[in-house]
Design a protein that fits this description.
4-stranded antiparallel β-sheet
């Protein structure tokens, strides 16, 4: 049974620069779930994703334009690639 009902990942420019001189890209993910933080982090660890997370923050919202519910917002480390995040599909 899936742990998450919705997973949304996007990229945004980051202020730091990589060796190539171009702008760095950071990935962020919002996961809608009712799972406890401990259970959620255990699942990320089992999928090999926890080591890529820089921050994990719980959110709750009733704002209809962002989607009602609760879950976790993840900022991924600046070295994380989209290929690293493919296991999110099995969350």
């Amino acid at each position: 049974m899936p742990l998450a009902s919705e997973v949304t990942t996007w990229q945004e420019p980051a202020p730091e620069q990589h060796d190539g001189g171009g702008p760095a890209v950071r990935f962020r993910t919002r996961v809608r779930t009712n799972a406890t933080e401990d259970r959620f982090k255990r699942r990320l660890e089992a999928l090999g994703l926890l080591a890529f997370a820089e921050t994990i923050d719980r959110y709750e919202t009733n704002w209809h334009w962002t989607g009602c519910g609760q879950g976790y917002a993840i900022l991924w480390r600046d070295t994380t690639t989209l290929a690293d995040l493919l296991p999110l599909a099995r969350l």
